[in-house]
């Protein structure tokens, strides 16, 4: 996959920019390199939570691999994806520790259940970095993510503004489709969204979506349409682009001629194309390359016995965790060119395939 480097937009203060690099970590196997820690290298495990959301395999994995290969060419990378199975992630972490991992970088499937992973690593003096989502109620060494309540607030504010501008905010109800109840991030998105939505809109139905699964979001949206009636739904808060896609599928099946304002998150390509086509109002762009780079930088620092640079401390229930939190950006049809295309996240050709050429032209892309 070819991507140009993502600019450090929105005031991100991060590590030094990467030079071009490469490296692969296959599931259950290591990239080239060896060492036992310190400047000569060492083994770092990168454990992602799922592959239903496109970002993890398409962006996070290659960006982390690239950053690690640049910053520590002698390091060995162990990579696994738990495919939304908490028990599987526990087994993968156990295997990583058994195979000599000196640092664990983990995006937890279940933010609470992952405490057992952190505790076992701690007992073996192996530092743990929570990546993108917080490991709760256990000692961890570092946390790299985005300002997650701000993500939810950006989504909620955008939906309120759009409904107000359209004059529909008092003419019906909205449906809220949150993320997975086992994900600490989902709770933060939800809290931020309600900060923006409460008292300004009428919520007809609200759901939490197990596993962030688009098909479950589709079922939830179908239930909401049946309960409320399609003519009474003026907007949909979807916590990410996958659940937004499920909501769109349900509305199309129900005969919606126009999709009401709909939120999302992660700037997935399909979501950007829906925005161009008028089937999704907005998404939240989180510049993944700086996030993955910050995590790799922190992992190498911990491998060397150093303290990673942080810009805030976050309470995970077991103490204040040194953290690096990045700034998210709301994206609508009006700023795709100045964010995603400008930063090289997608090219115009990737967005404006044959089906979307006319809509792209109309949007000025």
Question: Secondary structure elements and their pairing?
Answer:
Elements lengths: L42 E6 L6 H17 L4 E6 L4 H13 L4 E4 L8 H9 L4 E4 L10 E5 L1 H19 L6 E5 L6 H14 L5 E5 L6 H15 L4 E6 L2 H13 L15 H9 L5 E3 L2 H16 L8 E4 L4 E7 L2 E3 L5 H5 L6 H4 L5 H7 L2
Evaluate the radius of gyration. 21 Å
Strand order of the largest sheet: 2-1-3-4-5-11-10
What sequence of helices (H) and strands (E) makes up the elements? EHEHEHEEHEHEHEHHEHEEEHHH
Shape: globular
Unreliable segments of 5+ consecutive residues: 1-39
* CATH hierarchy: architecture of the largest domain: 3-Layer(aba) Sandwich
> How many beta-strand segments?
12
What profile does the largest beta sheet have?
7 strands, mixed
Give the full name of the CATH homologous superfamily of the largest domain.
Answer: Response regulator
Please give the count of helices: 12
For the record, the CATH class of the largest domain is: Alpha Beta
Q: How helix-rich are the residues, as a percent range?
A: 25-40%
Q: End-to-end span in angstroms?
A: 22 Å
Total domain modules: 2
- The overall average pLDDT, rounded, is 89
Class of secondary structure makeup: alpha/beta
Proportion in β-strands:
15-25%
Question: Under CATH, the topology of the largest domain is which?
Answer: Rossmann fold
């Amino acid at each position: 996959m070819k991507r140009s480097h993502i600019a450090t937009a929105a005031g991100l203060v991060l590590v030094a920019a990467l030079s071009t690099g490469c490296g692969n970590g296959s599931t259950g196997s290591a990239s080239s390199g060896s060492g036992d820690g310190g400047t000569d290298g060492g083994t770092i495990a990168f454990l992602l939570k799922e592959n239903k959301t496109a970002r993890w395999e398409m962006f996070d994995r290659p960006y982390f691999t690239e950053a690690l290969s640049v910053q520590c060419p002698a390091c060995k990378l162990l990579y696994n994806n738990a495919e939304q199975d908490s028990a599987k992630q526990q087994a993968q972490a156990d295997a990583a520790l058994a195979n000599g991992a000196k640092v664990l970088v983990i995006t937890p499937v279940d933010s609470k259940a992952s405490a057992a992973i952190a505790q076992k690593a701690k007992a073996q003096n192996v530092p743990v970095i929570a990546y993108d989502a917080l490991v709760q109620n256990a000692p961890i060494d570092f946390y790299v993510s985005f300002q997650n309540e701000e993500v939810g607030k950006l989504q909620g504010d955008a939906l309120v503004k759009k409904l107000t501008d359209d004059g529909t905010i008092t003419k019906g109800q909205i449906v809220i489709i949150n993320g997975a109840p086992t994900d600490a991030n989902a709770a933060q998105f939800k809290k931020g969204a309600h900060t923006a939505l409460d008292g300004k809109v009428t919520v007809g139905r609200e759901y939490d979506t197990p596993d962030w699964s688009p098909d479950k979001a589709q079922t939830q949206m179908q239930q909401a349409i049946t309960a409320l009636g399609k003519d009474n739904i003026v907007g949909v808060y979807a916590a990410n682009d996958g659940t937004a896609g499920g909501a769109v599928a349900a509305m199309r099946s129900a005969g919606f001629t126009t999709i009401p304002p709909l939120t999302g998150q992660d700037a997935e390509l399909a979501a950007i194309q829906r925005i161009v086509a008028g089937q999704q109002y907005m998404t939240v762009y989180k510049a993944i390359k700086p996030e993955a780079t910050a995590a790799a930088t922190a992992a190498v620092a911990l491998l060397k016995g150093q303290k990673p640079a942080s810009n805030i401390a976050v309470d995970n229930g077991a103490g204040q965790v040194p953290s690096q939190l990045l700034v998210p950006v709301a994206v609508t049809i009006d700023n795709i060119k100045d964010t995603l295309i400008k930063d090289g996240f997608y090219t115009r050709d990737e967005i404006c395939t044959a089906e979307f050429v006319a809509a792209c032209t109309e949007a000025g892309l």
